[in-house]
Design a protein that fits this description.
Radius of gyration: 17 Å
Shape: globular
Number of helices: 6
Order of helices and strands: HHEHHEEHH
Structural class: alpha+beta
Length: 88
């Protein structure tokens, strides 16, 4: 799993270092801009936990966001299976 996350550009060392992250740390983990993280929030991919007017994200929130965006399984339709056999 860690290798896959690293291939996607996720900083796994920072992600596993603690369980609660600030907005800036979360942006660094994703390697994204503040606008991109805000876009994730608008699309309900990640939900910040607010405390004293600051946003915090848990490690599980970050992993859930990644899982929502990247399908881990791929289903092949029966029509596509015929073509698959031709090329293999």
């Amino acid at each position: 799993m860690e290798q896959t996350l690293e291939l996607l550009g996720i900083k796994t060392e920072l992600l596993t270092s603690k369980s609660l992250f600030t907005r800036l740390e979360t942006e660094e983990i994703f390697g994204c801009t503040p606008q991109t993280l805000k876009s994730f929030e608008r699309r309900n991919l990640i939900k910040p936990n607010r405390f004293k007017n600051k946003n915090f994200y848990t490690a599980s929130d970050i992993l859930d966001c990644i899982k929502k965006q990247i399908p881990l399984t791929c289903k092949i339709k029966s029509e596509e299976l015929d073509w698959y056999d031709i090329w293999s």
